[in-house]
Amino acid sequence: MRLITFTESGTTRIGILDGESVVDLSAASPDLPREMVAFLEAGDSAMDAARSALEAGGPRLALADIHLESPILRPPKILAVGLNYADHVAEAGMDTPKYPMIFNKQSTSAHPPNEPFHLPRASPALDYEGELAVVIGKRCRHVPQERAYEVVAGYTICNDVSVRDWQIRVPTFTMGKSWDTHCPLGPAIVSADEVPDPHSLDLRTWVNGELRQSSNTKHLIFKVPALIEHLSTAFTLEPGDVIPTGTPSGVGAVMKPPKFLQAGDVVKIAISGIGELENGVIEEPENTVRIG
Length: 292
Hints:
Blueprint: E1 2-8, E2 11-18, E3 21-24, H1 25-28, H2 36-41, H3 44-55, E4 60-62, E5 67-68, E6 78-82, H4 86-92, E7 101-105, E8 110-111, E9 117-119, E10 126-127, E11 130-136, E12 152-159, E13 162-163, H5 164-167, H6 174-177, E14 183-191, E15 202-207, E16 210-216, H7 224-234, E17 242-244, E18 266-271, E19 275-283
Parallel strand pairs: 8-14, 9-19
Antiparallel strand pairs: 1-2, 1-5, 1-14, 2-3, 3-4, 6-7, 10-13, 11-12, 11-17, 12-14, 15-16, 15-18, 18-19
């Protein structure tokens, strides 16, 4: 299944993307939660009900008639991984980490597919990072690697948008990684049963049609089970938590000269079996100044 969050006729709810149509789960199975985190919290029975609605050919909408939102509007946690491809470690001139390098992207950075993200007024050093992201489906703690896939709801695409000068000001990455709109996700959460091996997926990123990143998730240094074991050792993982697993080589900051994103650019990330995530870039609007 390809689970989505969408808005239609002024209401936001969840559905299943099926080609050029969408199964409206609020109509097909009214007892299901209408919000993605609540749906994931409802567990296997909710997943089974959604699959039944898909198989029954439940009420559908045309994809062209809905607006795709971030699959998870406000993830409880976004736990990203730095330097998790050897070629990216090399291009960054860093040492291979002995342990996963974890940093937070704030939940307010989550952003829909197809909507432009912001070139900050406070920095010109805007960069892209195409990544496979894991979506947690079960509340869990101290998960051993051999049971890690039991807690995975599915996978999606993440653009770990980065403000490089803010990122390198201090040893921790959070300020350079957490700007509003800087975590485009989607277009869907592909359920784990449709991704038998998350470590055999081609990943490519284009900027304005120019191929910048081309790799495969088999090159991840720390694999999905290792990341889940590592993170859950310290704290509880919850349904809807998102784990972007790291980016391969080809980011704009290391090009000579650097190729930072400009207003008007378009970034497209494709991961085999997952889909395509595309977003433009716009100048940060004046209306982002808010007090109260």
